[in-house]
Each structure stands twice: as structure tokens, then as C-alpha cells.
Amino acid sequence: MKALVYTQPNEMQILERPYPSLEANEVVLKIESVGICGSDMHAFHGHDPRRKPGLVLGHEFAGTVEETSSSLFAKGQRVTGNPLITCGHCEYCLQGRNNLCANRTMVGMTRPGAFAQYMSIPASSLIAIPNGLGVDAAALTEPAATAVHAINLSMRALQRPIQECRVLVLGGGAIGMLSALLLKHYGVGDLTVAEVNPLRRQALEQHAACNTINPMDEQPTENGYEFVMDCVGAAVTRNTALAAVKPGGVVMHVGLQDWASEIDMRKLTLAEITLLGTYTYSTVDLQATVNLLARNAFGNLSWVESRSLEDGPQAFMDLHAGKTAAAKVLLKPF
Fold first, then answer.
1. How many domains are contained in the chain?
2. Which DSSP letter does residue 88 get?
3. How large is the average pLDDT for residues 121-136?
4. Does the N-terminal or the C-terminal CB of the chain have fewer CB atoms within 10 Å?
5. Does the pLDDT at position 260 exceed 90?
6. Are residues 125 and 175 in the same domain?
7. What angle do CA 36, 38, 40 make, to 5 degrees?
């Protein structure tokens, strides 16, 4: 079968890979649509030691069950799924927080991913796609669930309903775009997204009907927002988030571009800022996201770009160079 393989830093190649073997309680999926994630780009740049050259990346997928050894799903069913493969018995799984599973592995990291014509995965990780939801929309379940999980966590910490808040999102990539769309769906009227790419700013204004700023030219209002989402996670965006949040406000840290940096602990303490971290989503979040996508809660998704799997190497280069307005590029193996 054809697969898009990470061969060395800044290089992806279309190569032949063996058809996946069918293991007990697993399925083999025919991948029909798969998204390029920011973490795939991080690996592509050679910045993720967990993802080594020779690996098939890709974990934002939708497709059809080709073979099954499980009674949970039948051949021909349309599915998306949780790329986190969890144990089901640790304390976090038992609490319903399986995103924190102590024994988790992951598609596209510890086993071959979805940048291929076929992929194997445990049947327990799958979620059925409802009738009427296309595979391209379903392939957005994973990144959209990241936004759902982060915003739902944040709403528990906010002192007032989110609809009353001035909201700032840092970064207009896929998670920033999906967060902006979900915030608008939740009724947020005062929303600003800071994004350096002019093509993405234009897409945000068009599809999310929000204010945008170029943080290279204009800094967000200091102490101006009750809720700030950092969807980049760089040292500079962490500092920007702390400067922009109002006393008593909430900062949700989503991105992980830089793994360490200093932040303004004095303001965090004296202004009673709530700083939250988030990691992916639970399976319940994924199911809720499928339902939101089926109800068009994220709009018509016309900002998403589709390409063939064979065009995958160029897609990575275009994303690296900032040459596409699309916050999300989907690859089509067939």
C-alpha cells in the first residue's frame, strides 16, 4: 500500500508499506481522509524525539472498516476515532479522563499512523460517523475535540458565562480556527484572534466573523480579556497571554511550541489569574464533537483544503512556508 513516510527532518516521501495485519480486537481501516496536525509538523521539523524517521505519521482520520476481528464494528462501517490507545483500567480511565491514561500509546507515534491507504487500530478506539456527516468533516473530529475539551474546561473556571466575556485567541492555525468557530457557536460576541499569517487572518475574518490582529504590529489590549486561549504555546505567546488577561481571568494553555519559558508569576499571583493546561480530549469529548460537526456547529468548513496523499510532501512544505491560507489540510489516500 502507499504511505506518506517521515524519512528525515524536513522530508516526507511516498513509499510502499506492508498492508497492516489484523490483530485480535482490532480493525483495519481504509483511510479516506486524514488531517495534517501541528504535531505532525513538529515531527516533520525534527523537534519530536518520540516520532522517529521511518514512521508513518497522521492521527486525524476518517474512513471505512475494511477488516475486523471485533464484534464492535462491522466491515463497511464509516468511522473516526481516538488516536490515543488507552488501557481502560488505570485510575484516569476509571475516572473518565482517559486522555490522561497512564499506559497510553498513540497512532502515528508508537504505531503506524493514518497517512496511508490502510491503518490498524483497536476497535475500542473507534466512533461511528452518523449518516449525513462526510468523511472530510469527520476527519476534523480530533482537532475539533481538542478545542471542545479546552473550552469546556475553561468555562468551569470562568466567573461569568463565556458569552459575557471578551475573549482572545492566540494563533489562527487549526486549533485556533476551530476554537474561534466554537466560541462563536457558544455565543461569544467579542472575539479577537491574533495571527501573524495574513492569509489566515483573512480566513478567520471570513469564516469566524471575528476581529483579528497581527501581533507583529499590534499587541492585544493589556488587561483587556476575561478569557485568553494560547493555541501556539511559544514563550512570547505565554507572556502575551498573561499580559492580556484581566485580573481574575482565565488563561487556557493549549499549544506546545516551546516546552519551557518564564512567565509573569507576580501577575498570576497578585491578580488571581487561573492558568489551565489541557491535553487532547476524552473519548466522550470526541463523541460530543462528532455530534457538533453533524449539527454544523463549526460552520461549512469551506476553509479546509483537500489534497491527494501523493501531494503530501508538497503539502508539508507549503505549510512550513506559510503558503496556504488553510488552517487545516486534509490528505486523501484514494
1. 2
2. S
3. 96
4. C
5. no
6. no
7. 60
Q: What type of residue sits at position 279?
A: Y
At residue 322 the predicted structure's pLDDT band, cuts being 50, 70 and 90, is confident
How far apart CA 58 and CA 146 sit, in angstroms, is: 16
Query: Scanning the structure block, which residue is given the C-alpha cell 483573512?
Result: 202
Please check whether residues 126 and 45 belong to one and the same domain: yes
Please answer whether residues 4 and 58 qualify as being in contact, where contact means their C-beta atoms are separated by less than 8 angstroms.
yes
The pTM for the full model equals 0.95
Please tell me the predicted confidence (pLDDT) of residue 20. 98
Instruction: Judge whether 288 lies within some domain.
Output: no
The CATH number that applies at residue 28 is 3.90.180.10
Distance, in Å, from the CA atom of 119 to the CA atom of 83, rounded to the nearest integer, reads 11
Beta bridge partners of 26: 122
Euclidean distance between the first and final Cα of the chain, in Å?
A: 11
Residue 286 covered by a domain: no
